[in-house]
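Feature request, filed as a ticket because there's no other form

It would be nice if the structure record came with a short human-readable summary line next to the C-alpha coordinates. Right now we just get the raw output. Example of a typical job, pasted below so the devs can see what we mean:
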Amino acid sequence: MKTIITTPHAPAPIGPYNQAVLTGNTLYTSGQIAIHPTSGNLVLDDIESETKQVMSNIKAILTQANMSFDHVIKATIFISNMDDFQKINTIYGSYFDDATAPARETVQVARLPKDVNVEISVIAVK
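Raw output as currently delivered:
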Protein backbone atom coordinates (compact mmCIF):
# COMPACT_ATOMS: atom_id res chain seq x y z
CA MET A 1 0.00 0.00 0.00
CA LYS A 2 1.33 3.43 -0.85
CA THR A 3 0.42 6.95 0.17
CA ILE A 4 1.18 9.89 -2.09
CA ILE A 5 2.80 12.79 -0.23
CA THR A 6 2.25 16.29 -1.60
CA THR A 7 2.79 19.74 -0.16
CA PRO A 8 2.41 23.26 -1.56
CA HIS A 9 5.67 24.10 0.25
CA ALA A 10 7.69 22.19 -2.37
CA PRO A 11 7.44 22.61 -6.14
CA ALA A 12 4.74 20.78 -8.02
CA PRO A 13 6.02 17.94 -10.21
CA ILE A 14 7.00 18.90 -13.75
CA GLY A 15 6.07 15.49 -15.13
CA PRO A 16 4.11 12.30 -14.42
CA TYR A 17 5.39 11.69 -10.88
CA ASN A 18 4.66 12.73 -7.29
CA GLN A 19 6.76 14.67 -4.80
CA ALA A 20 7.06 11.54 -2.66
CA VAL A 21 5.59 8.14 -1.97
CA LEU A 22 5.23 6.65 1.51
CA THR A 23 5.01 2.88 1.77
CA GLY A 24 4.93 1.43 5.26
CA ASN A 25 7.40 3.53 7.23
CA THR A 26 9.59 4.34 4.23
CA LEU A 27 9.42 7.60 2.27
CA TYR A 28 10.87 7.89 -1.23
CA THR A 29 11.19 11.44 -2.53
CA SER A 30 11.44 12.34 -6.17
CA GLY A 31 14.52 14.27 -7.18
CA GLN A 32 14.24 17.88 -6.14
CA ILE A 33 15.66 20.78 -8.08
CA ALA A 34 15.85 24.44 -7.13
CA ILE A 35 12.35 25.54 -8.05
CA HIS A 36 10.89 28.01 -5.56
CA PRO A 37 7.50 26.52 -4.60
CA THR A 38 5.61 29.81 -4.45
CA SER A 39 6.94 31.64 -7.50
CA GLY A 40 7.77 28.60 -9.61
CA ASN A 41 11.04 30.32 -10.55
CA LEU A 42 14.38 28.56 -10.61
CA VAL A 43 16.88 29.66 -7.95
CA LEU A 44 20.14 29.67 -9.89
CA ASP A 45 21.99 32.70 -8.47
CA ASP A 46 24.91 30.50 -7.36
CA ILE A 47 25.43 26.85 -6.45
CA GLU A 48 25.03 27.55 -2.73
CA SER A 49 21.61 29.21 -3.06
CA GLU A 50 20.56 26.55 -5.55
CA THR A 51 21.51 23.75 -3.13
CA LYS A 52 19.76 25.53 -0.23
CA GLN A 53 16.54 25.68 -2.26
CA VAL A 54 16.81 21.99 -3.11
CA MET A 55 17.29 21.12 0.57
CA SER A 56 14.40 23.41 1.54
CA ASN A 57 12.15 21.57 -0.91
CA ILE A 58 13.21 18.23 0.55
CA LYS A 59 12.60 19.53 4.08
CA ALA A 60 9.04 20.56 3.12
CA ILE A 61 8.31 17.08 1.79
CA LEU A 62 9.80 15.40 4.87
CA THR A 63 7.74 17.70 7.11
CA GLN A 64 4.55 16.84 5.21
CA ALA A 65 5.31 13.17 5.90
CA ASN A 66 5.91 13.94 9.61
CA MET A 67 9.63 13.30 9.22
CA SER A 68 12.86 15.29 9.36
CA PHE A 69 16.40 15.00 8.05
CA ASP A 70 17.08 12.74 11.07
CA HIS A 71 14.93 10.10 9.33
CA VAL A 72 16.91 10.16 6.07
CA ILE A 73 18.85 6.93 5.52
CA LYS A 74 19.94 7.41 1.88
CA ALA A 75 20.54 10.35 -0.42
CA THR A 76 21.39 10.59 -4.09
CA ILE A 77 22.96 13.74 -5.49
CA PHE A 78 23.26 14.44 -9.20
CA ILE A 79 25.46 17.38 -10.18
CA SER A 80 26.32 18.85 -13.55
CA ASN A 81 29.88 19.84 -12.58
CA MET A 82 32.05 17.95 -10.11
CA ASP A 83 33.94 21.21 -9.50
CA ASP A 84 30.87 22.26 -7.45
CA PHE A 85 31.12 19.18 -5.22
CA GLN A 86 32.66 20.88 -2.18
CA LYS A 87 30.23 23.81 -2.19
CA ILE A 88 27.23 21.48 -2.56
CA ASN A 89 28.66 19.16 0.09
CA THR A 90 29.05 22.02 2.58
CA ILE A 91 25.41 23.12 2.21
CA TYR A 92 24.08 19.53 2.14
CA GLY A 93 26.16 18.60 5.19
CA SER A 94 24.72 21.45 7.25
CA TYR A 95 21.38 19.60 7.31
CA PHE A 96 22.83 16.47 8.95
CA ASP A 97 24.74 15.47 12.07
CA ASP A 98 28.01 13.87 10.92
CA ALA A 99 27.54 10.93 13.29
CA THR A 100 24.12 10.03 11.87
CA ALA A 101 24.41 11.26 8.28
CA PRO A 102 22.76 9.00 5.68
CA ALA A 103 24.45 6.83 3.10
CA ARG A 104 24.94 8.72 -0.15
CA GLU A 105 26.31 8.82 -3.64
CA THR A 106 27.15 11.85 -5.74
CA VAL A 107 27.25 11.50 -9.50
CA GLN A 108 28.19 13.97 -12.20
CA VAL A 109 25.73 13.86 -15.08
CA ALA A 110 25.66 15.43 -18.52
CA ARG A 111 22.43 17.33 -17.99
CA LEU A 112 19.63 17.79 -15.46
CA PRO A 113 15.98 18.89 -15.83
CA LYS A 114 15.58 22.59 -16.67
CA ASP A 115 19.39 22.76 -16.98
CA VAL A 116 19.87 23.05 -13.20
CA ASN A 117 23.18 22.24 -11.55
CA VAL A 118 22.05 19.93 -8.74
CA GLU A 119 19.23 17.47 -8.06
CA ILE A 120 18.81 15.52 -4.82
CA SER A 121 16.49 12.73 -3.74
CA VAL A 122 16.27 10.96 -0.38
CA ILE A 123 14.86 7.86 1.26
CA ALA A 124 13.68 8.29 4.84
CA VAL A 125 12.38 5.81 7.43
CA LYS A 126 10.33 6.46 10.59
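Something like this underneath would help us a lot:
Residues 2-125 form a domain with the 60s Ribosomal Protein L30; Chain: A; fold (CATH 3.30.1330.40).
The helical segments are 47-64, 85-93.
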